[in-house]
Amino acid sequence: MDLQSILSKLFANAGAVGIEGTFQFVFGPQLAFWSQVKAQSQTEAGRHPAPDVTIEVAETDFLGIMGGNVNVEELFASGRLKIGGNMGLATLLPQIIDHARHGGAVAKKVEMNTRYPTPPRHSEQVSASLPTQRTVERRPRSELSVEEFRSHYLPQGIPVVISDALGDWPLFKLSREQSLVHFAELQGITRHGDYVKKTFSTERDFRSTSMAEFIASLDNPAPKSADGEPPAYMGNNILPAQLLEQIQYPPYFDRSLFIPPRIWIGPKGTLTPLHRDDTDNLFAQVWGQKSFILAAPHHREALGTWSTAPQGGLDGCDVNPDAPDYERFPASRDVTFLRVTLEAGDLLFLPEGWFHQVESVSTSLSVNFWVNSGRGW
């Protein structure tokens, strides 16, 4: 199948999930195609005069992506795929590719950046049946066996901090200066402007950034703006393959259940507001400190929860745990918020369904592992 036909197939149903825009693909000096995505999509050879997103990638790498042998985020992180233009729209490319390879047409259009009612989850029933948890237990890795974790914390969905958990990570032992050698050729996507108020929206200001240059800038971050915008944040980037040998997968789940790990880098003051994910999470603090505010799954309604898709999955909240609006959300008075600070070397087990707000207390590098454990499904 030729490239134009592959691109036509790739974007054929992208409009059905609420994506609109013009994607320019450049495979070489004389080989380029563009796809305009609307309710009906079209793909043409050549260069579009005003594309929303421009993607430069080798033809062999692109064919590897479409064949399921190459990860598009990994290509980007390693510098083998370059993106220009609207990075918010570009961040949807993995979703478009996955939809084309596995999903086909969808029955109901998902409007991007729309809030949907949040479906209940089984984890809400589990947490509601347990005694109210008021603190997060801290256990040294040497005193918490895999068997105890799997028999107690995992099935009941109980958060726990495992201390001294990263001693076998080369990345944990490297100095900041030494680590820059490993980040030298890598790139990531940073968030800028008021990304907190635009939580989970593609309208956030995303930019492509050199990882090494971003890390080098952390000692002298830009001051907080007059209107209170947080500092730039390299959040939720795939951990590049070059760094995988610098970490260790935690032993508490079977390796086959792990989703490719993610990396989070930023100065003091970066913030991800209250939300919840749809899988279990192991969150490793490599540099610095991060503070977490947690709330149990069964507080969904009290927290003003909304979803980014009709079926739920990634759920945000309108309640600010630091300043709850009791007039608007009176039931939030009954929510028990748990506060915990992760130190360098800590590993937090954050069970599926638990709401969490995350803020960098200092310059911070974290790696997290989402896990398709199937707990409670």
TrEMBL record:
Domain named JmjC: residues: 239-377
Region (Disordered): 116-141
Gene3D superfamilies with a match to the protein in the record: Cupin (2.60.120.650), SCP2 sterol-binding domain (3.30.1050.10)
SMART domains from the UniProt entry: JmjC
InterPro entries: Cupin_8, JmjC_dom, SCP2_sterol-bd_dom, SCP2_sterol-bd_dom_sf
SUPFAM superfamilies named in the record: Clavaminate synthase-like, SCP-like
One matching Pfam family: Cupin_8
Biased composition (Polar residues): 125-134
PANTHER family: HYPOXIA-INDUCIBLE FACTOR 1 ALPHA INHIBITOR-RELATED, HYPOXIA-INDUCIBLE FACTOR 1-ALPHA INHIBITOR
The protein's name: Cupin
Protein's organism: Pseudomonas chlororaphis
Taxonomic path: Bacteria, Pseudomonadati, Pseudomonadota, Gammaproteobacteria, Pseudomonadales
